[in-house]
Amino acid sequence: MDEGRNTVPRRWTFAESGAGAAGPATATEATNTTEAEAVDFRVEQPARTFGDLVLADVVRRRVDTALNVVAHRDVLFKEWNLASISPHRGGAVVSLYGPPGTGKSACAEAIAHRLGRPYLRVSYAQIESRYVGETPKNIVRCFAEARRHDAVLVFDEADSILGRRLSRVTQSADHSVNVSRSVMLTELDHFDGVVVFTTNFPENYDVAFVRRILAHIRLELPDLAARRELWTKLLPKELPLHPEVTADVLADESEGMAGGDIVNVVMAAAAAAVARRGERRVVELADLRDELAATARARREVGNPPSSPRLVAWEDVPPLSSATGEGGGQQG
């Protein structure tokens, strides 16, 4: 294990095959170590690059600026003495936020490719544990793995991990939440690499995490030019298309759609076309329009509350007295 600032604090040291134990464990610790399932943090090589993505110029510039902290660390922290004002911040922490399907996860992978490093993707489900004390240990584990492989650490659904700490602790679960948040803060302060958080709900971040993030970068829904570029990229040249299908037409008819929506539209339209035979076994404009309409409707209705109250049971009807006066007449 490395000495100095990157050493895992002893109170969070964990025993694994090939790793030394921190010392004799209590009965409870031994039980948790035995029963708790080992978390498999897999380090992967990035396949997607910034050339594969359709991003606004401002997003690319903001990413480049954040990565300059890593590329020019010695100049910034030694020659220009930024270490005097931020002694523990040797790495770069980036938060990518915005509507679903705008390419946040793909952008995180492209950041790793730009740096020539592998990446380690972590979800809330991987680090959260039902065993007392295991969640903070899992947080330490993923940072240790990232250090060991010099990997970019990517946290998906980061709002679940970086949520606000609880000011009123009323049960052991509340205490565990606060401990986990504190451990995450400590690890971020002592990590020299690159961390990328992705989220659809940045408003749920604890303020202590907000100020530790170097760059907050919003990925917007694509405009007309970006949608045209997306359709051009996402219609494979091998996909048989009717001549009337063009990126220009589709870009005009897909306003409000994200890249992830367009992928789903192409997949569903191709699935409809492949069931046909003969000359009609091509993706027609009608196939794509049907799926665009279905996707637009789903964006309006699925996951959103209804625009007006719906009667689901007679018990939901307010008492008559609330709608009428004492004499039974309607109130004015």
UniProtKB/TrEMBL annotation:
Organism: Streptomyces himastatinicus ATCC 53653
Region spans: Disordered: 1-31, 296-332
Ranges that cross the membrane: none
SMART domains: AAA (SM00382)
Keyword field: ATP-binding, Nucleotide-binding
Protein name: AAA family ATPase
Biased composition (Low complexity): 15-31
Any one GO MF annotation of this record: ATP hydrolysis activity
PANTHER family in alphabetical order: 26S PROTEASOME REGULATORY SUBUNIT
AAA+ ATPase domain boundaries: 90-223
Family: Belongs to the AAA ATPase family.
